[in-house]
Write a structure and sequence with these properties.
477 residues; alpha/beta; Arc Repressor Mutant, subunit A; Aspartate Aminotransferase, domain 1; Aspartate Aminotransferase, domain 2; 8-stranded mixed beta sheet; 5-stranded mixed beta sheet; 15 helices; globular
Length: 477
């Protein structure tokens, strides 16, 4: 020990713990002060040990969060197996989405981690027939743009659909995108530059965090509750006293992951607050059509008189996920967004737009989306009841009024990342709470997808999750 610097001795001990698996990839490491106390050294020596391991790419420093065990950089030589990602691999913001998609492609039997409904909920055969008939009538659609007359008819159908949601949108203010992700990404690219601050809800959809990181933007997380959505008080405090905020991204209807529905009065107050501070809002209404009540909840955009709200919607959840048909209405930003879209993906596939136009015009979309809503509502009720019956005392769920996501708040002390590791070993997946923030928050929470048809196997798997959570809390796992 006398032959090497003290910090290097500490670093080697930590490396041994990393190599043995005692500190698994993605896990949070002891704080600098804690490490210093463990070894009886000052904090500078402990920090030097971490910096050495950081140079060796064994640990990763995260601002304001501390040090974490680095994720594996490659598969070991000769190891051809391709296992699904571990729960620990979800720590890095820039890999969460890809890792969860890998989990979807894995052999996990009960997949409850993504915001996706089972394919049986969607009219696959009906859409296949419509597509074949449309191509038979207009074979040119396989290699051309949708004719102008057909485009105008489609925009009129979208305008009528939105009018039922209390939106007054001109046909020349409708822009189709590749799903809602592109709509939001285009909006962010237009409104911001690298280094800018964007306000988001917390907990927040992990895909949005990854988009912000890819664009070089900083996320300012504003608390969101399952009861009322975004905290307007916290947002106003941040706008008054924090760094300048370029825009806000919010899901006012059935927020992901909490399922929160923002009350109409709060939506009006949010718009007033944004006006006072010159804040542009990107409204994500991807789940708005999955309402369980009598009508689509009114979007924030309905009260926008100045064109400051960029409204983003999609048919991926309520009609045909594989079509990836989203759309936006950009208010005073619309022309700029159209130009930006032309420089990226240009247009949506003509054949898919043609099928959508026929389904909207025939009234079949209303029938299809209503059936999906009814099924999701029933499955949500079954899932909520099963979780409350199976999970340990102190678990809380708030049944959302729409969407396909159930936010579960476990008792304090529950480690949902460790719970996921145990669940994956039993071929069950879910989204642990830590993926819904850039900071290590919501560790006792998890998000479940209610898009899977209820079955005896699913009921048994929920009981298994509850049993694993109880075992963990009682120290028997």
């Amino acid at each position: 020990m006398a032959d090497i610097p003290l910090y290097l001795h500490i670093a080697r001990q930590l490396q041994a713990r990393l190599d043995s698996g005692e500190l698994p990839p993605g896990s949070r490491l002891p704080a600098v002060r804690q490490l210093a106390a463990e070894h009886g050294v000052n904090t500078l020596t402990a920090l030097a040990a971490y910096r050495h391991l950081e140079e060796q790419q064994s640990v990763v420093a995260r601002p304001r969060s501390g040090f974490f065990a680095a994720l594996p950089r490659h598969v070991a030589a000769g190891d051809t197996a391709q296992p699904g990602p571990t729960a620990a691999a979800l720590v890095d913001v820039d890999s969460r989405m890809s890792n969860l998609i890998r989990l979807s492609a894995s052999s996990i039997r009960q997949q409850l981690h993504m915001a996706e409904a089972h394919n049986s909920l969607y009219p696959a055969q009906e859409l296949s027939r419509r597509m074949q008939l449309l191509l038979a009538r207009q074979p040119e659609l396989i290699g051309a743009y949708l004719p102008t007359a057909d485009q105008q008819q489609l925009y009129q159908q979208i305008r009528r659909l939105a009018a039922g949601w209390q939106l007054d949108i001109a046909t020349d203010h409708i822009l189709f995108t590749q799903g809602i992700t592109e709509a939001i990404s285009l909006s962010l690219r237009h409104l911001t530059r690298p280094g800018d601050v964007v306000a988001v809800e917390t907990p927040v959809y992990f895909g949005l965090l990854q988009t912000l990181q890819t664009l070089g933007l900083k996320a300012l997380e504003i608390p969101c509750t399952p009861d009322a959505g975004l905290s307007l008080e916290a947002l106003e405090f941040a706008l008054r006293h924090g760094a300048p905020v370029k825009c806000l991204v919010t899901v006012t209807n059935f927020q992901n992951p909490t399922g929160a529905l923002m009350p109409d009065d709060n939506k009006k107050r949010l718009l007033q607050l944004a006006r006072r501070h010159g804040l542009t809002i990107i409204e994500d209404d991807v789940f708005g059509e999955l309402y369980f009540g009598s009508q689509h909840p009114t979007p924030l955009k309905a009260w926008d008189r100045d064109g400051d709200v960029i409204y983003c919607s999609s048919f991926t959840k309520s009609f045909a996920p594989a079509f990836r048909l989203g759309w936006l209405s950009g208010g005073r930003h619309h022309a700029a967004l159209e130009r930006l879209r032309e420089s990226s993906s240009l247009v949506s596939p003509a054949i898919l737009l043609g099928v959508l136009a026929e389904v909207l015009a025939s009234g079949d979309y209303a029938r299809i989306s209503q059936r999906i809503r009814q099924q999701l509502k029933q499955q949500m009720e079954q899932l909520s009841a099963a979780v409350l019956a199976a999970f340990p005392r102190g678990t809380r769920v708030r049944r959302p009024q729409g969407g396909m996501l159930l936010w579960v708040e476990g008792p304090e002390g529950l480690d949902s990342q460790a719970l996921l590791e145990a669940a994956l070993a039993r071929s069950i997946s879910f989204a642990p709470g830590l993926v819904f923030s850039a900071e290590p928050r919501f560790g006792h929470c998890l998000r479940l997808n209610c898009g899977q048809p209820w079955s005896t196997q699913l009921a048994e798997d929920i009981r298994t999750l509850g049993w694993l959570a109880t075992q963990q809390l009682t120290g028997l796992a």
